Task: structure prediction
Amino acid sequence: MKILILGGDGYLGWPTSMFFSIRGHKICAVDNFVKRKIEVEFGVQPLSEIKNLHQRVKAWNAKSKNKITYKVGDLLNYRFLDKLLEEFRPEAIIHYAEQPSAPYSMGSHEKAVFTQYNNVIGNLNLLFAIKRNCPKVHLIKLGTLGEYGTPNIDIEEGWLNLEHNGRKDRVLFPKKPGSFYHLSKVHDSANIEFACRIWGLRSTDLNQGVVYGLYTDEIAADVENLSTSFHYDGIFGTFINRFITQMVSNNNLTVYGKGNQKRGFLNLIDTLKCVEIATKNLPDKGEFRVYNQFTEFSSLNEIADRILKVGKKLGYKKSKRVNVPNPRIEMEDHYYNPKNTHLLSLGLKPIKFDEKEIIRNIKFVEKYIKNLDKDIFEAKIKWSLK
Amino acid sequence: MKILILGGDGYLGWPTSMFFSIRGHKICAVDNFVKRKIEVEFGVQPLSEIKNLHQRVKAWNAKSKNKITYKVGDLLNYRFLDKLLEEFRPEAIIHYAEQPSAPYSMGSHEKAVFTQYNNVIGNLNLLFAIKRNCPKVHLIKLGTLGEYGTPNIDIEEGWLNLEHNGRKDRVLFPKKPGSFYHLSKVHDSANIEFACRIWGLRSTDLNQGVVYGLYTDEIAADVENLSTSFHYDGIFGTFINRFITQMVSNNNLTVYGKGNQKRGFLNLIDTLKCVEIATKNLPDKGEFRVYNQFTEFSSLNEIADRILKVGKKLGYKKSKRVNVPNPRIEMEDHYYNPKNTHLLSLGLKPIKFDEKEIIRNIKFVEKYIKNLDKDIFEAKIKWSLK
Result:
């Protein structure tokens, strides 16, 4: 299958490119390096040095019989995108190419505008380029569980069958996103659903939890050259990465607010398997399909405690969980029951965030802890934007 | 009250400016004339010549003791907007300043992108400028009933109390917009709801039906200089204006598709009264309030028939209703029950689209029928975008 991977230089985009390449698919990876630029602007960097896309593709192609091609370009450049689709004629497009940081989007007026402009218009350009060049393509779009917020009802997978005043309908699940970044994803999904409805496009929207993990088989075979990024900072970092890095560096684990907030999460390998499942299940013409993509959910406190418990066995005894003022504005005590039955029913066998996985992550952090910049742990951007 | 009217040169913006000015409010009207530019691009124009904003303000200020001030500027220019709010310090902002045509937004890739960029980023700029300069201001934002689409359930006013699997929540009403224009309004509302939730802004979102009518008291006092626009074309025209103009010019009334599609509508004077009611009811800090703003709803066929029936009495006997291929992609047979109880309970006394009102509109069209360009009746833009 010819697969176009948009955002191919990212934490997920690069492992996805290799994952599908080794399985015999023809891959074209595209990136505009906007995330690398933001890293430089904020002075944050992954814990281990990551080769650039040119170097990684070169290293991959030197050893693999399946070559990855790549293009440097921006979805905001419609002529580039249109030509790309016209020439490559993808059968599936995996679209990760968005500004991915919620804190970044809340950092200032300019950053909020950049996030919505980049994500919404980039995605809109993509829909029109698909319409013109390859209307039968399967658009697999990455969204996030954070789009839903924390409603007091079960979170269904994208659509909701509801009854109101004795009448029934199937509607897009009402969302309550938590940042201008999350809003941009909600806008994207609404635009994609419309394009499916009006033009008969086909799309799978993956509303994903927080991803952890560093090693796929492809990365493990050449860690030095093929690794993906591990962010523990206040812009791109996830709470799991931050907690582990704080523990390994003998700092306290900083949990935002009360820490009763719940989050869905999953292993990097499961992300790839979910995306693979999506590619194998083409929606009907005009279908806008949504899967919730996570394997576990827990409160922030529970996850911190789980990491600390494993850490203790390895000798990390100085760190404890501390609840710091929440930079976000969000409910800290809430009902949470997101569904993920679609991907499980299609064969996903989840990897659990258990002792073995936590140790794997700790070992990674230990290996690179000499690179630690502990000044970047802190969440400097406040949702209140004082 | 100091009221900023964004989109002050528009069909609604200009009558709104005079309506509040004569009632003693201090008005600043702002426009970037994007609609006038699109008129020129497509070669469409209102049936009666409309003076430009400079001329209309001059004519108004020459006779009124309450002067209107105005600024030429664009919401996409954040420095302009920020300075405007800093200097004028409005107590209410009535925001009409968006690309208002659904067909335009479906005309091409560039037009869809322009619509979403102009509307979403302009509105986002406004939210940040409000946050910085006047966070207590009442933002009154005009949306449309078309955002909801035609769900199989009653359309509540913006929010929905729902029960799902035995649990309850109050959520934003799930919308199914019918064009990239309508989508832009949905995105706006989502961004505004978030800004209210996070920053404590106050907003009333008015989801309005199709507006008809030409004469407010202020316009009637000086029709030559103070009139607002009457569009009957395929870009900015409404079906009511098109039907009346087709009848007066002895053409058939072109109803899109089966004509069983239902639309909400209201008189221009009722729009002004609704906006006035909104200004008198300040939402709480952090409240995102939604009113559905229409006074009647009917199918397209019913409205055409109503107009034809009145026309017959005046001697228009040649025209009949013809159902033409629908340029839009929409359900042509559907349940429709939008609620509008909020504005009625706050005192709105609706003007009906009855014989008297229809005759008023016919008389207007007769007066200017010499200006007719019947080539612009046709809906040249198709939703399918072949």
